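Project standup — Tuesday

K.O.: blocked on the structure for the chain from last sprint. Re-posting the sequence here as requested.
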Amino acid sequence: MSGAAHYDEEQRLKALYQSGLLDNQKHEDFDFIVQAAARLCDVPQAFVAFVDRGLVWISASVDYLPFRQLPRSGTFADLALTGDAFINIPDLHTDPRTASHPLTQSGFGFCMYAATPICAPNGHAIGVLSLLDNRPRLLDAEQREWLLQLGRQASALVEWRRVRKELEGALLEQERATRMDHLTGLPNRPWLLARIEEECNRAHRFGHPFSLILFDLDKLGEMNEQMGRDCGDAALGRVGRLLRQSLRNTDTAGRLSGDRFCIVLPNTSADGAATLAEMLRGRIESKPNPLEPALAMTASFGVACAAEHGIYGAHSLLAAAGAALDQARIDGRNRVAVALSTPPDLG
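H.V.: unblocked you, prediction finished:
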């Protein structure tokens, strides 16, 4: 890239914000560039900075800097942003653009400044690769070419970071899609079973209480037959939203199959899980089907606790919670039952 595009501050800032580089962090991607610039151009200070509306963010530097931000007005960044692909001021004290500048008068002893812009893919300069020296001098032709090449490498890194960020986002979205049930917005069966196994192992290792809640929506099949599948799907979606709003960050709720849901509750006793189940039962009962407001929704719940029932296999714990759920349904539905005995260890 030979230089920045025609200067447009708003478009420049737009490109900068899209880069994701303004996070007050030291970006190791640029460390080699500043180290190479300092060595090849024989200067004590080199740094990469990205220029916001009123601030300059130092992303990488040869020496440790105790700050990551500077006022834009207190730097020479604008000289490189709005000029050509290369700028070299041999003596800051005699150049009319910099003689009275605060950085020149700061007492740091800087005499020479050289820089090249770092550009976004659209050609707008979003930052600068800068050199400072405490002796007045011009870079020779070879050093100038090195600085230009390193500036292009920094620009290429900006684009590489953008592409990497997009790929990481796409991978996260793909991962989310593979573990989510789209109807409820909750984790699906495979991911949920893996989560239960993980918590069972942790509970066994550390002796922490760990509980499961299983619940079914009562008579969802009849609802689908009488009112249509859209009505049943609306009921499932409503329950998914309710669960997302009602649980702790450490809890996991998911859809096991059909109308059956499971809630994974780390560090939770059977009593604590039963209390949560009763709260959810009441909330489900109080919220009508969004497509059929006159149609009541109820659910039946089964609770089991790994530590209290001595169960540390995922399948066995699910079986215990399932047995409690069956009892709740036998007892008349729309209620909570807690497992009272340990089923055979299947896991």
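K.O.: great, moving the ticket to review. The chain has a mean pLDDT of 86. The longest helix spans residues 141-179.
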